Amino acid sequence: MNSGQRLARFAPGAVVGLLWGIFLLLVESLVGAATLLRAVLDATTRILPVGLFGWLLGRAESAAKPLAVVGTLAMFTLVAGVLTLVLRGRARTWLLGALALLLWSGTVWVAYEYGEALTTALFVASSSTFFLVGGLWIVSAEAQPSSRTRRRLLRTFLGAGLVLGLATAGRFLTGLRARSRAPRAVDERGLSPAITPLADFYVVSKNVADPEVDLARWRLRVIGRVRRPLELDLAALRSRPAVRMVSTLECISNDVWGPYISTGEWIGLRLRDLLLEAEPVDPLVDVVLRAADEYSDSIPFSVALDPAVLLAYGLNGESLPREHGFPLRLVVPGIYGMKNVKWITEIELVDFDYLGYWQQRGWSDSAIVQIHSRIDTPRGGSVLTVGQEVLVGGIAFAGTRGIQRVEVSVDGGATWRPAEMESPLSPYSWVRWWITWRPDQEGRARLVVRAWDGDGRLQEERERPPLPDGATGWHRITVDVRART
Ligand SMILES: Nc1nc2c(c(=O)[nH]1)N[C@H]1C(S)=C(S)[C@@H](COP(=O)(O)O)O[C@H]1N2
Ligand SMILES: [Mo]
Fold first, then answer.
1. Where does the record place the Oxidoreductase molybdopterin-binding domain (predicted)?
2. Rounded distance, CA 191 to CA 434, Å?
3. Same domain, residue pair 381 and 407
4. Which residues lie at CB < 5 A from ion ligand 2?
């Protein structure tokens, strides 16, 4: 068999595999059901070596999720293509039957594993089996002379499906990228606002489609090592004493210069109050939080008792937006975003160290935020004028330790000036800092910022990538100073 023939045999299956993948993608995003696509995606991120995974994430940035989906679609394409290559000419009905059965049970198992309703499982299983196996059978059946019209029809059908599918997937992936949102709002001085407006609050989730929780059926359960398990709806949670708290949230995969950090005013109840109401039973190690998207993570029981740890149902004066975890999310000051579980459904008290979704993939377990400072203005690459007064400013954050002091260098770190600081809106919030600078020399200037936390520790200068403990290093930018004209 020459390579041309091989390609001719590979191609029809590949097309069917791709269409099947796109179909599953649509089921995920429209029906919100877990499919084999999600299972393969989840499994892949778990199997990838930690270093490679971190490198890929660093490279891809906000395109990471769309790229992961495209990669998974490519896998489906390859697998189905190879299947046709192997099966073609030797296809037996029983073999295809066995394949169908395998697929069917696999899909049902996935649906079961992901706790979806039986109807969804049956829908996904039957339609995907029909689509893949039917497609494989048609394209791999020996061509009959009388079947020319049929083949032409089939080709038209597959071609049209492919175009339609690619177009839909393209639109969907663009949306996905926009949903990993990281715009950087700045005020008239070029500084990040003290409280990030909702529209600019960063968004990160592992999902192709985030859960849409039906309030009528949603309940929060508190279970595990408790004397009085609880089951409460949102109204019951809202009727308990409410707490407002300004706190900064940062994703552990944020770079030192990165935009995945925002500050909000959260409204909710203390996790502590709810846990005590359930009467915890010793010995206790972790509090596990499970979510509607099969995400889970834990915080130590001792941390959960901190009055600053909230179950939030509101953000910036509004009901918690869907993308931020409606109806209920965890807010743990000073601990990276991944531990701030969204779309919570269950809280379990356990007597062991529970590894969350991202810990299973190599990220830090304690996830305490690093000392972090960032220059927001001027932007790197800006053109400035000799003698012109420039505001150099940005944010600094060290979680619950707070920021003691910030210094700025305009000569690449040779000399340093203390920055002015605004008092933070809360002990858990970033601070805004600035200096005014009048460049007196033409040429390139290298601006650097560094901060000290409340314990008097200096931000680590050594540059380390976000994985596994959060990025370190000093933020440096270069600006171009030109003579006055
Ligand atoms: N249920 C659930 N919670 C989750 C996640 C998720 O994928 N599923 N992602 C986490 C990560 S990695 C981060 S950085 C924060 C982001 O919260 P935000 O989108 O409200 O900024 O949510 C965390 N909580
Ligand atoms: Mo994150």
1. 211-358
2. 9
3. yes
4. 204, 251, 337-338
Q: Digits of tens for pLDDT over the chain (485 positions)?
A: 677 777 777 777 788 778 888 888 887 777 766 777 777 777 667 666 666 776 777 676 667 778 888 888 888 788 777 777 776 655 554 455 556 556 655 655 555 455 445 545 555 555 566 566 666 666 666 545 456 666 666 666 666 666 666 666 665 666 565 555 556 678 889 999 999 999 999 998 888 778 889 999 999 999 999 999 999 999 999 999 999 999 999 999 898 988 899 999 999 999 999 999 999 999 999 999 999 988 999 999 999 999 999 999 999 999 999 999 999 999 999 999 999 999 999 999 999 999 998 888 778 888 999 999 999 999 988 999 999 999 999 999 999 999 999 999 999 999 999 999 999 999 999 999 999 999 999 999 999 999 999 999 999 999 988 888 999 999 999 999 999 87
Indicate if 226 and 202 belong to the same structural domain: yes
Query: Do 128 and 8 have their domain in common?
Result: yes
Kindly identify the ligand whose nearest atom is closest to the C-alpha of 45: 1
Number of domains forming the structure of the chain? 3
Ligand nearest the Cα of residue 339 is 1
CATH number, position 308: 3.90.420.10
Helix (H) or strand (E) holding 201: none
For residue 401, what are the CA distances in angstroms to 300, 308, 368?
Answer: 18, 13, 10
Tokens representing 204 are 């990160």
For the chain, count helices (H), then strands (E). Answer: 10, 19
Ligand located closest to 253 CA: 2
357 and 376 part of one domain: no
Q: Does residue 150 share a domain with residue 39?
A: yes
What is this structure's pTM? 0.77
Burial tier of 118 (Cβ tally within 10 Å: 0-12, 13-18, 19+): exposed
Give the CATH number, domain containing residue 428. 2.60.40.650
- φ/ψ of 280, rounded to 5, equals -60, 150
> Is 345 within 8 Å of 220 (Cβ atoms)?
yes
193 falls within a domain: no
> 361, 393, 417: which is the final residue of a domain?
361
Residue 189 lies in a domain: no
Q: Is residue 186 part of a domain?
A: no
Indicate which atom in ligand 1 lies nearest the CA of residue 203: 19
Say which residue the tokens 């000290």 belong to: 452
For ligand 2, the distance from its centroid to the CA atom of residue 205, given in whole angstroms, is 7
| Partners of 314 in beta bridges | 267, 319
Ligand 1 site, CB within 6 A: 202-207, 249, 251, 291, 293, 295, 324, 337-338, 340-343
Q: Do 99 and 210 fall within a single domain?
A: no
* Number of neighbours of residue 160 by Cβ within 10 angstroms: 10
Closest alpha carbon to 86 in 10, 7, 155, 8: 10
Residue 446: domain span: 372-482
